[in-house]
Amino acid sequence: xxxxxxxxxxxxxxxxxxxxxxxxxxxxxxxxxxxxxxxxxxxxxxxxxxxxxxxxxxxxxxxxxxxxxxxxxxxxxxxxxxxxxxxxxxxxxxxxxxxxxxxxxxxxxxxxxxxxxxxxxxxxxxxxxxxxxxxxxxxxxxxxxxxxxxxxxxxxxxxxxxxxxxxxxxxxxxxxxxxxxxxxxxxxxxxxxxxxxxxxxxxxxxxxxxxxxxxxxxxxxxxxxxxxxxxxxxxxxxxxxxxxxxxxxxxxxxxxxxxxxxxxxxxxxxxxxxxxxxxxxxxxxxxxxxxxxxxxxxxxxxxxxxxxxxxxxxxxxxxxxxxxxxxxxxxxxxxxxxxxxxxxxxxxxxxxxxxxxxxxxxxxxxxx
Length: 368
Prior knowledge:
Blueprint: H1 3-6, H2 11-27, H3 34-62, H4 66-90, H5 97-125, E1 128-129, H6 132-151, H7 166-190, H8 209-212, H9 218-253, H10 258-268, H11 270-281, H12 285-310, H13 324-341, E2 345-346, H14 348-366
Antiparallel strand pairs: 1-2
Helix pairs in contact: 2-3, 2-9, 3-4, 3-9, 3-11, 4-9, 4-12, 5-10, 5-11, 5-12, 5-13, 5-14, 6-7, 6-12, 6-13, 7-12, 9-10, 11-12, 13-14
């Protein structure tokens, strides 16, 4: 590895990814005592911070919105692999894991990440601007995907319970993949300018130090991309490693099994959360919105097709339909997001409302 490749990358960002991966290998399929649990948590936190740094290096090289898209896609692909792995090893008890994790990801991104970014950004900058065209496009696709994939199974009659028949699941998987593919085409090619950050003078991009700084070299960006994937594998793997302790804690507390999916989604989405908050602090709220809504879209648009394919060899039922409480929360999220994104200007109040909805989701997940 030449000095020109690693130039500009802090030494800790080169050391943390392999160390986190080593922690994953050491603790994989082992019972976590107090020491190993602390080690896993430290490795998880360090991997998240390093992942965000490398994602920003790649984003600076390729530009927006490709940077946020790469981070969202990378996290989601590994998250899908985690869900399929847990379902394959969990039997009938894991029949609703995909639904719980995907719905939790939607609530976390559209209320938790978005609300937190709005709050921290408005506390520093009072009022922040973003592009209505991009935000409404993402919200429209997200609403359609959730309704077709997670709401409809509750009302279909071809299969017993809140499930799709094989044909219906195949249709939902193809539709999800096509809609997400069209959105990515719009985001990156046809209307890329819709998804660029807004400057105070209304032009594209942001007039800040990051914008004027020299872009990293191709070699540095490729190295960061590789280390980003190592970090994300470590994040998801360590989240899976700690999940048995989470399941035991959930059972001991008498909380519903769905809480496990919520906690897994929270852990997996930590890199996007940190990246979105950092962008909002830099007055790049459009980047935060791209991350939040883009992560929700990637989670649904890739998970449902993957589950549809995996159902060929997965045994046991596949529960996808949401319950009444979840549908109410989803409807509230859509209405709140529509009102938040309608003006293109965000304030502290809008962020507080989203965080209130997110808090209600967490509370009702523990106490249904």
